[in-house]
Structures are given as structure tokens and as C-alpha cells.
Amino acid sequence: MVLFPNAKINIGLNVTEKRNDGFHNIESIFYPVFELYDVLEIVKCEELKFTSTGIEIPGSKKDNLCLKAYQLLKQDFNISPVHIYLLKVIPIGAGLGGGSADAAFTLKGLNDLFDLKLTDEQLISYAQKLGSDCAFFIKNKPVFAFNKGDEFKDIELDLLTFEIKIEYPNIHIGTAEAYAGIHPKEPVKNIKSLIAVAPIENWKETIKNDFEESIFPNHPEIKELKEKMYKNGAVYASMTGSGSAVYGVFERSE
Ligand SMILES: C[C@](O)(CO)[C@H](O)COP(=O)(O)OP(=O)(O)OC[C@H]1O[C@@H](n2ccc(N)nc2=O)[C@H](O)[C@@H]1O
Ligand SMILES: Nc1ncnc2c1ncn2[C@@H]1O[C@H](COP(=O)(O)OP(=O)(O)OP(=O)(O)O)[C@@H](O)[C@H]1O
Asked: Which superkingdom, per the lineage (predicted)?
């Protein structure tokens, strides 16, 4: 079975408060980007194996989110060993949710391969145990995310008439260190309501990613990348998640 775990971008991101469990509550729009994806193959085999090619993944193999997803389901279901092959394409430490997508797609893949008949809601609950971004990739549709960024409300947002260009400045930003640099605050206006009323041309003035304020001073090249997107004609540009990748939303040239 071959799957294509895709990237996500955050359109606006407010870190609203620090929680008692050490995590933060956030509000953000998550939008799937299907043009940027890893390739994941899962096949039944004699013993559990994980092989990755493409971009090198920091950390040890056993900590890979694909294997963690397998182990999580293995606790509850009598599934046989698999060989998981991952071609890593989505930049890491980029705020594009690549590792989380791999984990969520592994859950979905194992559900199909072993005919576990788990519903999306059950898969979401497994995904939430693997990481805050993981749950989004189960349904993989535009949503307003809240709480830890792992609970969602569906939204109507269609950017198909636009082209989304993503650039990775080759800077790895760890999610935990990025959150540590944030001073949480309640937003004046909620992103969901801003997106609902404002046309995309107005987002530049209203839709902000709180991580930019703490990341840009330490990494001016990321700010420059965002400015370059606007110079090149983007209607909206932003850093995604906790960085470091930047995206621009452009009118499609026919
Ligand atoms: C920045 C975003 O990408 C926005 O979508 C996500 O909030 C990050 O989600 P993620 O990479 O799945 O993060 P996790 O693996 O759950 O957590 C990594 C670390 O980031 C911090 N973290 C993460 C999510 C959150 N809502 N509050 C946090 O404070 C915690 O220190 C945590 O130990
Ligand atoms: N399949 C995987 N792909 C990428 N990273 C993985 C994977 N499995 C485990 N990891 C670990 O996760 C870390 C990357 O997570 P991190 O949150 O810093 O960056 P990210 O890819 O931008 O994700 P996010 O958008 O969720 O913040 C890597 O350093 C690596 O150790």
C-alpha cells in the first residue's frame, strides 16, 4: 500500500495561553497542501522494519513517528509486523507538519491494511496521542483549529484558484523551543471570524502568525523571505506554524 502524506500550512496562528500541562492553547486555520508530500509504503512482512530515504530525519529510527503510530495501534490490535518505507521530501523543522502527516497516514494505512474498521473519530483520538498536528491529517480538510491545535471546526475555505508557493530557508526550528519564546495573549479578533469576513486581499493587515514576532528577530532571513513573496506579487504571505518555512498565496497566471 502506497500513501502520500502531504504538508499543511497555518493561515494565522494565535498562541492564546499556556496550559497547566506545559502545552499552549492556539487558534489557527490549518490548510492542506497536496502538492508537497512524502511517499509512504506499508507492506506486511516477517518482522517490524522501518527504512527511510530522501531528507535525513534527525533522531533515532525507533523514535520515528511512523513506528510510534504502528506501536500505538499494536497495543490495542493484534496486527502482524510490517515494513514501512518512507521517502522524506517535506522539510523538517519547517512548520509544515511533515512528521505529523507521516504518523497520521501510517494510522490510516494500517487501518486499511488490517481492516480494523476504525472511524475517523477513533483515528483522530489515536493521532492526538502522537502529536498536536497529527489529528488534522486524518480528515486533511481546511479547519479552524483550537485548544492544543488538535481539535477542529470545519470551515469553508477554497484557495484552488490561487497558487501556494512554499520556500524553506534551510533553518531547522524545533517546535518546543519556538513555543518557549512566545508570550501568549488573547487575540483582539478570532482568526475564524476574520477569514470569514475579510477577502484574501485584506488578510495582510489582519491575519498574523504570533511566532513571527519571536522568530524573525533571530532569523532575519525568514522575514526577508516573506518580504520577497510580497515583492513577487503574493496576495498574502506568512511563516507557517513555528517556522521556518514561508508561503505565499499568488493569483494563478493562466
Ligand atoms: C506549531 C504547530 O505546527 C502549529 O500547527 C503545532 O502547534 C506544533 O505541533 P506538533 O509539532 O505536533 O507539536 P507536538 O509534537 O505536539 O509538541 C512538541 C512540543 O511543542 C510544544 N507545544 C506543542 C503544541 C502546543 N499546542 N503547545 C506547545 O507548547 C510543547 O513544548 C511540545 O512538547
Ligand atoms: N517521519 C518523520 N518526519 C520528520 N520528523 C520526524 C519524523 N518522525 C520523527 N520525527 C522527529 O520530529 C522532529 C521534527 O519535528 P518538528 O516539530 O521540530 O518539525 P516540523 O517537521 O516542522 O513539524 P511541525 O510542523 O509539526 O512543527 C524531527 O527532528 C525528528 O526528530
From this structure: Bacteria
